[in-house]
Amino acid sequence: MKINKYIVIIFLLSAVVVSVSTYYSINSSKLAAGLSDRVYLTQHQISRLDKIYSNLSIADNAVKNYIITGNAKLLIPPDSSAARLKRTLRSLRRDMKGDSSLFTDSKRLETLANARIKVLDKLAKERKQSFDSAKKMVSTGIGIAQMDTIKALVDRMTAKERLQRTQYSTQTQVSVDKTTQTIIVSGIGTFLIIIIVLFFLSRDERRIQRSERKFRDVFTASPFAIVITDLKTGKIQSINEEFTFMFGFTEKDVKGYSMVDLGALSQEDRTMIIEDVRVNGTSRNKEFQFRTKSGDIITTLFSNIILDIDETPSILALFSNITELKKLQHELVTAKELAEKSVREKDVFLANMSHEIRTPMNAIIGFSDLLKSTSLEDEQKDFLNVISNAGENLLVIINDILDFSKIESGNLTMEKRPLNLKVLLEYTKKLLLLKADEKQIGLNFYYESDLPEFIIGDQVRLNQILINLIGNAIKFTEEGKVEVRTRTVSKNGNECTLEISVKDTGIGIPEDKLETIFERFKQGDDNTTRKYGGTGLGLSITKRLIELCGGQIKLNSKIGVGSEFIIQIPFEMAQKVTDADITSEAQIDKICGLNILIVEDNELNQKLAIRILKKANTVSLAVNGQEAIDRVKYQQFDIILMDLQMPVMDGYTATKYIREVLKNTTPIIALTAHSIGEEKGKSLEYGINEYLSKPYKAHELLQKIQNQIQAGKENNSKIKIEIKEEAPIDEKNNKLYDLSLIQENSDNDKEFIQESISIFLRDMSNNIDVLKNSLLEEKYEDIRKLAHKMKSSLSLFKADKAVELCKKIEASSEDNVIASSIHELIDSVTLITETFKRDFPLT
Question: Are strands 481-492 and 495-504 parallel, antiparallel or unpaired?
Fold first, then answer.
């Protein structure tokens, strides 16, 4: 049976090879015949071209001899000569239709030949009239020119035909060679196929024997327990040693019995297993419990498949004992639950600790700030500064511990809100400038002019990152300066990557500590904590915050020279932000004319909140949630400040009642000493509008109140905001330029501004001349480069229209668009410079 199968395979393969080779040989022969015809036709065309030129030359020489001798017998009858030539030309043109180039040349040759015949005919007629007339006509050289042109055309056509003849001859030979090779290869291939099939036929029996041996070896040495049973009867056909080890049954024990007969498996389970494997053909990694010979229950991963063994349908089943693994899994689940419980208890402990510490801290820091605004003696001011600084330091330590806990537990979330980058940097500078001045070191901020004005990010966390890095730089610098530089690394659409570097001339960090400085509780030197204080968590928290923002931090440092921390963070650029979105905390002094309910059980916190708000607002007090509900039932408030942990009724329950039962939508701000992430989320779920962690400062509380009142537009008429300092310049400015940026960056140094304007006017005058010359010479690439250069200077003076034109020129690849935009840019810059000269006549 097997021999017949291989004979059929040999016959089919041989037939296919012979058929393919025959088909290919016939096609190659046809191709060779066609190519031979083309070789013949090409040779015929070459002969025709020679004949055409030869006939023309004979006719030309005959006319010339006639002109010289006057013997008319030398003339060839023109009619017969022209007729033969025209027939040859038509035949030539017909045969060359397949080649467009030669066909065009043949038509031109026919035109030139006919023209030459006409000239020869005219010469003969002129000679009959007068020798001088014919001589004069010959002397014009028109005949020589015509024959030279015809000769050149014939030579070119002949060269093309010869090239084609060579190509066709080569292709013919290649086709013949391929036909021969095909016949040889097909014969060899057929022979090899027969040999290979016969070889495998002889190996088939040996392979089957080896496969059986391999199966037996795998069956015996497998780490899995294996049993083979009859599909119909369930009787065990064979088991391996691992099965005996796992279940305790020997080959003698199982002979003639099924797993059900041995008590290892119930009849119901066997029926379910058989049904599953019949439907699916196999069953993989099913978890089953079996009974061993000793009566123990074991848990296994069970897989099986239907096989034909010795022409008998059988089931091959594999077992893996996972009893110990299941016990370990149960222990791991228990350990996980204990760990989660421990984390929850830690969070509760941190929350309670935060509440207990922050509540008195709120009073200490809050009343210290209020005391600073009163009349004090110098010694009292010193004592107050010590109290305030100690409170601030303790608050930093508390915040570090709580932030680190939130980061470690994954509960710290990053907000995405529009923020003004330069305002944030200036706020940070003002916040830390006093510390730098106290140590008599410089604190300088630098940023490029093309920084995005607004970005989307977490303002609080970005401010925390900056304060940590800059604060550290100031703390560890005894003399010299701290420099903060901000630049845009890349822009792509509405996304950008910003780089902020903080460089100091401080004590530096040892090289062997550079790798570990960002680890928790690590500092540059063992004496650092004793000398400078701190928990060793600041840089660890900073690094984790940067990574949560999607950024990275690098460090360069040298002992005695200083350190440089470089951070790169990606941001989304905001297109337009309202003033309400970016109002700086430092701008609001107080809010007036509001009816405010304070719900607070701690007396110190009551006094602080009342002290901040009472001057210009109506303030009511409730000491628990129930009192708050009673007041809200009968009185309308503009804002409610709600503590969350209070006796009788907590802030959550009171808020839920106010929202769901009283249907009251008055904005509620949670004031709590808790600082765990879940607390904030829980507050918002209960209907609380905003969250403020204690201890807070007066301007922080006022900022939160202002935001909530502005959000409820129906109450806007009640708000009166007093500004401590000038608000940021509105971007909608009708002027051609705006000096606010250069004033801000130079601390309004008038001499510096005057010098900058002079340089700007000088450069713009030169740039306009270069633009005009480049436009005349059409040097558009130079124009693009100059537009990029001008954009930076124009951005410094916020010349928005001119900046947009520069961007348009820089980005355009169309010369006409560039040319049109250049004229607009020149007009715009000229108007700006004229306005500058008018507004600043001394520049």
Answer: antiparallel
Least confident of 263-267, 557-561, 748-752, 797-801: 748-752
Q: Nearest 5 degrees, angle CA 453-CA 459-CA 461?
A: 140
Q: Which residues of 690-699 are buried (b: 16+ CB within 10 A; e: fewer)?
A: bbebbbbebb
317, 226 contact by CB (below 8 A): yes
H-type helices in 323-479, by residue range? 323-372, 378-409, 421-438, 459-475
Q: What distance in Å separates the CA atoms of residue 632 and residue 618, rounded to the nearest whole number?
A: 15
Residues 664 and 164: their CA atoms lie apart, in Å, by 98
Q: Which tens digit of pLDDT belongs to each residue from 88-111?
A: 777 777 777 777 777 777 777 778
Distance, first Cα to last Cα, the chain: 110
pLDDT (average), residues 40-62:
75
Query: 551-560: long-range contacts at Cβ-Cβ below 8 A with a sequence spacing of 24 or more?
Result: 553/518, 555/509, 555/514, 555/517, 555/518, 557/508, 557/509, 557/511, 557/514, 558/508, 559/507, 559/508, 559/509, 559/510, 559/511, 560/507, 560/508
Task: Give the number of C-alpha atoms closer than 13 A to the C-alpha of residue 392, restricted to the C-beta side.
Answer: 11
Burial class (CB in 10 A: 0-12, 13-18, 19+), 818: buried
Which of 548, 640, 551, 635 has its CA nearest to residue 599? 640
Q: How far apart are CA 843 and CA 838, in angstroms?
A: 10
CA dihedral 292, 298, 303, 308 (to 10 degrees): 0
3-class secondary structure, 239 = strand
Per-residue model confidence as pLDDT tens digits over 124-150: 777 777 777 777 777 777 777 777 787
d(CA 314, CA 731): 84
